[in-house]
Amino acid sequence: MAYLQTDVTKVTTRVLQNMKLHGEKIAMITAYDYSMASLIESTKIDVVLVGDSAANVMQGHRTTLPITLDEMIVYATSVVRAIKRALVVVDMPFGTYQGNSMQALASAIRIMKETGADAIKMEGGEEILESVQRILSAGIPIMGHLGLTPQSINKFGTYAVRATEQEEADRVKKDAQILQEAGCFSVVLEKIPAKLAAEITGDLKIPTIGIGAGMHTDGQVLVLQDMLGITQQFKPRYLRTYGTFGEDIANAIRHYVGDVKCGNFPSEKEQY
Ligand code: KIV
Questions:
Q1: I want to staple 55 with a disulfide (CB 3.0 to 4.6 A). Which of 61, 119, 127, 175 is the partner?
Q2: Residue among 41, 123, 126, 190 flagged as catalytic
Q3: Average pLDDT value for the chain
Q4: For position 49, what pLDDT does the model report?
Q5: Shared domain check, 260 and 189
Q6: Is residue 190 annotated as a catalytic residue, yes or no?
Q7: CB-CB contact of 213 with 194 (8 Å)
Q8: How far does the centroid of ligand 1 lie from the alpha carbon of residue 50, in Å?
Q9: Range of the domain at 263
């Protein structure tokens, strides 16, 4: 059918499933705006997450709790305009799905309809199962998120590694099974011991994506500003930075300010 054809081979949930089957690692990164997403589009990234980490890196909040559904939709719409190949996943923000599955479905439908994204992500296990099932029943793909779930930071009271005790490790394992059985296509494992993440990855048929969960997950995700070295004073052990763009950007702007102040910009060639 012509209306389904595009020039690029789109990454779908089925592609990710096959990647797990063939042992091919999945690369996922966050994005929140068109300019950065356009750069990401030129790479071989598999999944772009419009994370609610936008609350931190785009809006300067201490936690991810304040970001709204309307705000997430603005970020996601900008990203979707740039991404052709990768699967685009959008975080359901805090307060839009916990405890009310009808509200959860309405929030998920708004994201899918208004942004053109491919899937949504939700934090939690058994406690959000009813919402997960209702959203899946509408044909909306869901990526789960277990371990350190930042929307519950006020319950945890710390961003320290989760599930180091057997009881919580068993809970995370059980929740991963529950999400898989419900029909989620993938699950993010955040900041849990590598051994536990390896066991869950081995147990599940769906791909796991790790952040601070060691080397044995089926894929990895990092927050764009963190891995580019733009975020200041955030240096968890799991974070590898691939540049010093924070410094580079500040230096470029200092240079520009200096040029303007001393009349060095614009030059004759840069005027009409
Ligand atoms: O919001 C986010 O960026 C995330 C990733 C850290 C997985 O949930």
A1: 61
A2: 190
A3: 96
A4: 99
A5: no
A6: yes
A7: yes
A8: 8
A9: 244-272
